[in-house]
Amino acid sequence: MNPYYGVRRLGPYLGVIQVIDVGSACAYSTDGVNWRIRQRNPAGRLSWGIVQLREGDLSELRLANADELIDALEHHPPVPFPLRDRYELWLLHNESRKPLALLRTAYREQDMERVTDPHWRPFLLTDTAFVSPTLQRKEKEEPARGWPVPHRDQLESQVNMASRPMPAAQWFERREDGSGRGCGGLRLADEEIGRSLPGDDFPPLLISEDWDDEVQRALVIDYHDWHAAALLAHQNLDRALRRRLEKAACKRPRSLLGSYPLIPEVLDREAMEVALVSARIMAASP
Is-above-0.85 flag for pTM? Predict the structure, then answer.
């Protein structure tokens, strides 16, 4: 089995992570330079370590009983590695029963978790920075009475309400052509187990952007644009969508610093490099 692969971090979404898995030890990285190492010792306990890898120099690295991992780190192919988390857990739309929002992914079939909580979460509890330009404009035009509701909470409510009153979630095995085979999940009808959905039924990013209400649709787009730098590390995006995400990422240049090495294709390299220069200047400022 190829030890080099990438996976998406979800629940909530935290971007793409690179993995080097040699069985007895693993290394994880969000940028291809700084690696977090997990190793199981002879007693079965897990230990963690951190290593910074630049130009393959591991001369100072010392890990007991981890020669295979050190060799894999030293000779790893260029990042980004291929994304291999082809098992996807989707929150289903209550009416269409089609994928609505991505909840989890898994690399191996045996890693598909039992579904107990189908609630979709947009951010970590401590992450309160999200601002939707769409909701900002709406709030100026129609000032709300009472205490304003954070934009992240409005998005979370919108997505989860579309799955209620009895939210269902289903694991799918995604095929190379984009289609998906339905597996198990929560609150599924018998005929939904084993069903096959075409690739067009799966949102290309994290949430379906197909909403009847234009404000709701724009709010989802704002959320994707907020995560644009990380989403650019996803593979098999069509060019129109990648171009849109590049423009959005350039508006928040600091978000590109960590994810840029993991982006498999850049369409407007000049604009992205200008954004990176701005990001480095901003990061260096006190």
Answer: yes
